[in-house]
Amino acid sequence: MEQGNETTNWSQSVTGIVIRENKVLLARHTYGAGKGRLIVPGGYVNVGESPQEAVMREVMEETGIQVRPKEIIGIRFNQKDWYVAFLAEYISGDAVSDGMENSEVIWMDIEEALGREDVADLTKKLIECAVSGNYLSQIPYDGTTKYGPYTFYGAKKCDNN
Q: 0.85 exceeded by the pTM?
């Protein structure tokens, strides 16, 4: 997230829950309500960027890890904004802090993360959702608008292909 960036859509944000070898990727936040807490990486969507593109960019910027967003494991929203949580597949890279938004980036055993007090509550809920196997998957859909094609995520049972 780049503060003051005029291309940032402040009402749309994403996160990626990256699990590899029974460990989850976490970053120790350096500001705001999450300061000092371990959270999953993520941030705001830029104007003209899809949520999938944003999660790939944000995870790379904050952690040095290249990911591919897969299923949606959760959505948080109110009348003002929304936040989409993707299960994200590890592609490559070494976990390193960006030195700004986080002070450390680590791979932590899932059970340890769920039991630690310095892991934010929402992060724990997202990890639990990620390992549950219950999530929304991308399903082929032909809808298009002047802004481009829609992407549809639904329950696996909705996909008749």
A: yes
